[in-house]
Amino acid sequence: MRLVSIFLKSLKEQIRDPLTLSLSLAFAPFFVLLYGLFFPSESTAYSLLVLNHDAGAQIVDGSRQDYGEEILRAMAELAYADERQMLEIEIVDDRASAEQRLRDRDADALLVLPEALSQTIWEASQGRETAIAEVIFIGDLTSPKYLVAAVMANAVLDEHIHEATAQVRPITITEIPLGASAERSEFEIYVPGLIIFAVVMLIFQASMTIAREIESGTLRRLEFSRMKAFDYIGGTTLALLAIALIQVLLTFFTAEALNFRSQGALWLAVLIGALTALSIIGAGMIVACLSKSVSQAFIIANFPMALFMFFSGAIYPVHNPTLFTIGERTIGIFDTIPATHAVVAMNKVFTLGAGLGEIGYELGMLLMLSLLYFVAGIWLFRQTQLKSK
């Protein structure tokens, strides 16, 4: 009977706190729903940029043979069992801008077909000796999407040439990695995301610190002093930023001790971490304002933490459904999360050796979104906790 009494008592206590109970129950179903809405249930199509220099082959009877076009059509016809396209082929005419799109992860791989491709294949099919034509694949070798796109495209290329010549292919495949992506170990691939993840974890510190002062009445006592809203918010923010910077440095030097090699400047990583922390502190203020206790703040903070962690690409690459396009820049749903841009910028710095100018777009978006999150947190905090100030 005592067991039943305690059970009923505990159940009533849980029901008296409906927000915490509902959040605890809804956490996993909520993210399953998000994954179902945002991630395609169908097979993934990979973006392949093609720089086609193939001039075609002049046949003896005066006709022309264009193997380059045939190969691209065969690649475009690659399909999964559900008949969905495997490769999205896009013809480009400028290699530099195409490589920049690869760096921005706006495309998965770049295929460069040489001018003499068709002529080489034709002469080989006639049994003639011919010069070797060089086909080039370019991409970030640390990106899983590049690896899949390159393998599928290469398989089509190899099969088509073998059918045309019935011999060992008269071309050579050259793979050109972006930056130092070919030299990265499996451990090094994950370090940029792990550093952003370390900053994201600050949301627990931010939300629980503020919630603790609200719950204990410290904030009310401070209001009776000469403290201004700017004093409290500014002081708390600076303390949390200091913790964030220590997290970035500790994570970086730990990785370095384990043979991580950075291709870019550490100060850029610190700048990226600081801007990301600003958005996390803003989100922490919002969580604290929605909480009645420290324990409740901890539970609520799991929601934004999981969003920042799983949907920003910090842990693993994610599909980013397109919202709209501005020029050649595609804006996805998860681009509204500051950490998304932080992960891309951190990877550019550490893996590709990017400088300040090369991560200008990511830093601009990160700054804008972080200020938006931070200002929203300040506004809600002042409205709910510091009205008198």
List the main descriptive attributes of the protein structure presented here.
two-stranded antiparallel sheet; 59% helix; abc type-2 transporter like fold; 5-stranded mixed beta sheet; 14 helices
Task: Give a verbal description of the structure.
With about 400 residues, the chain is an alpha/beta fold. The strands form three sheets. A five-stranded mixed sheet has the order 4-1-5-6-7, with helices on both faces. It has a two-stranded antiparallel ribbon with strand order 2-3. Helix content is about 60%, strand content about 10%. The protein has two domains: about 140 residues, abc type-2 transporter like fold; about 200 residues, no CATH class. The model has no long low-confidence stretch (mean pLDDT about 80). It is built from 14 helices and nine strands. The longest helix has 29 residues. Strand 2 and strand 3 form a beta hairpin.
Quick recap of the structure?
With 389 residues, the chain is of the alpha/beta class. Helices cover 59% and strands 11% of the residues.
> How many beta-strand segments?
9
What is the alpha-carbon Rg in Å?
27 Å
Distance between the termini: 53 Å
Count of discrete alpha- or pi-helical segments spanning 4 or more residues: 14
Specify the structural class. Answer: alpha/beta
The 3D shape can be described as elongated
Mean pLDDT: 80
Poorly predicted runs are: none
Instruction: Please tell me the total number of domains.
Output: 2
- Order of strands, main sheet, comes to 4-1-5-6-7
Order of helices and strands: HHEEEHEHEHEHEHHHHHHEEHH
Name the beta content range. 5-15%
How helical, in percent, are the residues? 55-70%
Q: How many strands, what sense, and barrel or not for the largest sheet?
A: 5 strands, mixed
